[in-house]
User: What shape does this take?
Amino acid sequence: MAVNETPNSLSSAPTLWDLLARRADLTPDRPVLLQDDRSLTFGELRARAERVAAGLHDLGVRPGTVVAWQLPTRIETAVLSFALARLGAVQSPVIPFYRDREVGFALRESKAEFFAVPGTWRDFDHTEMARRLGAKGVFEAYDRLPEGDAGILPPPPADGTTVRWIYWTSGTTSDPKGVLHTDRSLIAGGSCLAHALRLTASDVGSIAFPYAHIGGPDYMVMLLLYGFPAVLFEHFALPAALDGYRRHGVTVAGGSTAFYSMFLAEQRRQPGSPVVPSLRLLAGGGAPKPPEVYHAVVREMGVQLTHGYGMTEVPMITMGSPGDTAEQLATTEGRPPSGMEIRIAEGGEVRLRGEAVCQGYLDPAQTAAAFDEDGFLRTGDLGRVTDSGHLVLTGRLKDVIIRKGENISAKEIEDLLAAHPAVGDVAVIGLPNAERGELVCAVVEQPPGAGPLTLKQVTDHLRAEGLSVHKLPERLEVVDALPRNDTLRKVLKYKLRERYS
Assistant: This one.
């Protein structure tokens, strides 16, 4: 495998473990993960992952064993994930700020036999939650991982087309959906992302988003194919994180629109002086990007910004490239790689077929509904393809709010708020926001005689119901009557978006 291997040579590396093993053979002493004052080389990552795989084997983890993990973005998390890949276990990553409702559902639906947690992290006791939920095989993996003699390990898995990943997305229903991925689909997504960004071995990347997000393996594939390191941030907040970016000479940063806006805000506090001198590129996806954000970043920060389109079901769909024009980078989601087919169906829905597309969902009924008769995934997004092959998204069929790159089900929040005595009916909508992509707004119609309702009362109620903090409404509007159609009296959310945007 060449140092800058392209997607065309993926047939020689069918599993994630193959990628790591080959990279460790090529550049064993080159760093791959940097965090605070710690670092791990490609060779060390392979060696430690094998020892941890042996420790997990001693615990009873075997090929096909379902292991859920809810861990922050740390070196240990990456090591654990590669150890599980070495064993051929089925991994079910869970975003670390999910709480009882989402975590309990993921554990039950995946039938997880083991659950790795960080203990008490950011003032929340994950171990206690795991016990409360009756999780099996709970072990803490924040700064210590089980290790053993790698000599006892069976051969690594050879088939990259077996489902070994279960990711979770809210979709449009109250409960999350378990998205089924293979090593092959994750490799396809990550390799195409790297190819679009035109990265090299001299770059220094950064992972400031949850490693449990589908973007985690996307990014790791880039590092393994192109042989450059990334700085890990357990908790991303500016200006506190700037020292890490500067100290390690990060050249590529980002994550989603929220990240761009935060960097831009810091730049505006010190105009004329680069906030991260080594930075040359911001890149990301997962949320709408207003064109004015692109222009402001280029103008004020003096770096390029490339934005893309992905989802848990398809981690890499399109991506802007540094070679695109300013107009294309500002107003489109980029172009698809050669292995991704985009079909604009009747009505404008974007549909997808290709190696990066998931195998479906844990629920067979959801899988059947998600793919059309030609095997294209129905995204629920609306869009068009330009003459140059760039994708422009124009809206969504799905009633999903995308806040900081994470999907939030409006129905889940509505269902919980319906139980509040001061709520007669409610519609939850996403409103455009330059920092977050979208913010969550609850529009409430109160029953007769109800007292005044405040945003704090709404969020306190939802917290008590176990809703994750990142899903809480940030805005409340109380109306005399929600707008409805004249047939089934369905709430017309587009009118609410028009009114409050």
Q: What stands out?
A: The CA atoms of residues 1 and 12 lie 8 Å apart. Residues 400-500 form a domain with the GMP Synthetase; Chain A, domain 3 fold (CATH 3.30.300.30). The first strand starts at residue 31 and ends at 35.
